[in-house]
Amino acid sequence: MNITTLSPSFVEPKNLAGNLKEKSFGVLSPAGLSAFIDAPLAELEAIKKDWEDLPLDNFLKDGGRYRRRRHSSFIVANHNVTQVPHRAHYQPLEYNALHGGMQRLFEPMLPATVQQPVWSKLLLAISQVCSAVKGEQPWYVESHQFRIDTNSGIGRPTPEGAHRDGVDFVAILLVAREHVSGGESRIFEAEGPHGQRFTLTEPWTLLLLDDHRVIHESTPIQPTAAGGHRDTLVLTFRSGGFLTQDA
């Protein structure tokens, strides 16, 4: 049986904030992302090697060993990006029924990655769109480097299913997609009947969505050849502070 892979509809960088207001999400092509952050894609390629050495995620409650990740936190304010002391990632059960309610302390991002000029360019550009939609303010950013592999036959990018993250905006950047099928992005109205589905296939494609207005998931991936995996960078942007157990 042939499974149709649907491509996303790309928006121009100048229209990304408008799309977020009107449709709750927007997708930039790799060329669009390059223009958006005012940097050649070669600068992003310089950090790609990080995904080859991500530590195993030991918190998966389904017993899987298909996910590797690093996590760090930042504050973007006054056109500056500041990394905060390493902290645990926390989500309430209302947002993550599978892994919520746990203090999950992952290994931090590598200093060499955070020090790359393109890192600040990326966070600043997305923060400006967030402020264009919801007003100028500091943004509390959590960064997750993910590798989902298929060494055991299947990998689950979102084992918790369709969900919200409890933040204001979520950015999903495809870093690599090698020898896999599946991994379809699905976006549903949080309070409505409509949804969208498409597959991110080109490295450095960016999906930005409004976490208040939509829920999202990515379907499982299956290998098409040995070594199949899907690498992503997920950035969450929250106003008012980081999501904590006491928030």
Summarize the structure.
The protein is α+β, with helices and mostly antiparallel strands and 247 residues long.
Structural description of this entry:
The chain is an alpha+beta fold. The chain has a single domain, classed as q2cbj1_9rhob like domain (Jelly Rolls, Sandwich). It has five helices and twelve strands. The strands form three sheets. A seven-stranded antiparallel sheet has the order 1-9-5-12-4-2-3. The longest helix is centred in the middle third of the chain and has 18 residues. The mean pLDDT is 92.
Features:
single chain, 247 residues, alpha+beta, Jelly Rolls, seven-stranded antiparallel beta sheet, 17% helix, 31% strand
Count of spatially separate domains: 1
Element pattern in H and E: HEHHEEHHEEEEEEEEE
> How would you describe the shape?
globular
The CATH class label is Mainly Beta
Which CATH architecture? Sandwich
Please name the fourth-level CATH homologous superfamily.
q2cbj1_9rhob like domain
Average pLDDT for all residues: 92
Q: If strands are numbered along the chain, what order do they take across the biggest sheet?
A: 1-9-5-12-4-2-3
Quaternary structure classification: single chain
Number of strands: 12
> How far apart are the termini?
47 Å
Q: Measured on Cα atoms, how large is the radius of gyration? A: 17 Å
Query: Fraction of residues in helices?
Result: 10-25%
Strand content: 25-35%
Q: Unreliable stretches, pLDDT < 50, 5 or more residues?
A: none
User: Which structural class matches the secondary elements?
Assistant: alpha+beta
In this structure, how is the largest beta sheet organized? Answer: 7 strands, antiparallel
Number of helices: 5
